[in-house]
Request: fold
Amino acid sequence: MEKNTKKICLLAALLFIITILSPNVSLANGDSYEVSSSVLNIRSEPSNSASLVGQFTKGDKVSVFNEQYGWVQTYYGGEPVWVAKHHLIPTGDSNQAEAPAAESAGEASGSVTVSADSIYVRSGPSTEDTIVSYAYKGDSFDVVSTSGDWLKISLSDGGTGWIAAWLTTDGNANAAETTEDSAPTVEAAQTQSSSSGSLSGYNIVIDPGHGGKDPGAIGLNNVYEKDVVTSTANYVVQQLEEAGANVIMTRSGDYFVSLEERVRISNSYNTDAFISLHYDSFSAVPVSGVTTYYNSNADAALAGSLNSTLSSTVSLPSRGTQPAGYKVLAETNAPSVLIELGYITNPHDLTVVQTADYQSSVARAITNGLINHLSN
Ligand SMILES: [Zn+2]
Reply:
């Protein structure tokens, strides 16, 4: 009897120690999550350009052991792999995350419509919080809660974000405040020196990479490649149209478009040039700059022209042109390039590429590069 009690005590002590040492105790160490998107790509490294190892589907349970730039490490087939954290929701013991937050100072008040041209969606209720995406005039959102002059809204991807009430139909329009958290608008680009020459009569396909359930690379501060790409593409389209081009976009909002569909769109027009826009990620932070990829010899001249104007126009260093086997380059009939416009995993690049100045300089470089290429 006494021996048994001793044994039980020992066992209890052992269990206690195991619990203390268990990876579940600290954050991102064996915490369990559930996949919230219909499909979640599994990659060999924390980068969207890393090789695809497999896919999880909605409802799959994932234990997380490490976290880096919005990617988390788990195991798949016994191997360490990485998935984008954005598509995971905490389960089980982390259920506090689902509880109503203390920040819910105000009641939910139905829906709200963006009244400024374009605004930032942030991770918290202040201009100090990280930008998680953009919203545009006329976009409507359900309001989850409020905090001061800020509205917490539901986003189409199932997440939430914060927007400034004074930039919505909810706000008491105060002229002094209205521009405070406006995102750079396409109109801002018009004040930059515009492109010379003419692209009239040319069909240009602009392919903003990723979108919807596919965030692309996830940079520092949880910046999504798809959002920076969308914003940049708007500048590019604007300048190309000013130069007279007929511009076709493979996506014009935050929704998913397959690579096959992007190719199909380009091939269904008499396309003169196909330009895919991306931002890079790399696990080593110091990598910086712009790279122009091409597939065939027919694409190389276009890549050369664009690389030349990019390196003379934009502020990030040029990494030159490189051959690559991307599907959107290999399967489009038109001369095509894929431009990686900077590394959102590099703090310097990330700051630069989010500015209106940078994005409109990219637009200028692409427009002038096309003019040089097509008029020769
Ligand atoms: Zn990309």
Observations:
- The chain has three domains: 2-97, 102-183, 186-374.
- The pocket of zinc ion is lined by residues 48, 209-210, 216-217, 225, 278 (CB under 6 Å).
